């Protein structure tokens, strides 16, 4: 990864972690299966990434997963759970070779039930 890509990557990463923190802050979404699926997918994607912030972010992701998994539940049909857009950006930037994970096409809260 060259310097520019690294900077763009850091920005994208900060953005999605922000987005996830916002979802995690919504009480009913904390244990939502779609949120947990995204968190898990990103944690996995982050594992091989050499960015200074990556390990700190992974600690956050782990904490959210742990908290969410104490009370997991199906999607409540809310609009905020699955930040598909930033997640897709993340996947595009960080794992160009990887195929889209299930989370991108999986259950979403924005299915019109909210
Ligand atoms: Zn939700
Ligand atoms: Zn949900």
Please give the structural blueprint:
Blueprint: H1 3-24, H2 33-46, H3 54-70, H4 84-94, H5 102-105
Helix pairs in contact: 1-3, 1-4, 2-3, 2-4
The protein binds zinc ion (2 copies).
Please name the defining characteristics of this protein.
60% helix, 114 residues, 0% strand, mainly alpha, binds zinc ion
N-to-C span: 41 Å
Number of strands: 0
Class by SSE composition: mainly alpha
List segments where confidence is low: pLDDT < 50 over at least 5 consecutive residues: 97-107
Principal-axes shape call = elongated
Main β sheet profile: none
User: Which small-molecule ligands are present, each listed once?
Assistant: zinc ion
Beta fraction: under 5%
Number of H- or I-type helical stretches: 5
In helices, the fraction of residues equals: 55-70%
Mean pLDDT metric: 78
Radius of gyration: 14 Å
Order of helices and strands: HHHHH
Q: What features would you describe in this structure?
A:
With 114 residues, this protein is an all-alpha fold. It is built from five helices and no strands. The longest helix has 22 residues. The chain is elongated and about 40 Å long.
Summary?
Helices cover 60% and strands 0% of the residues.
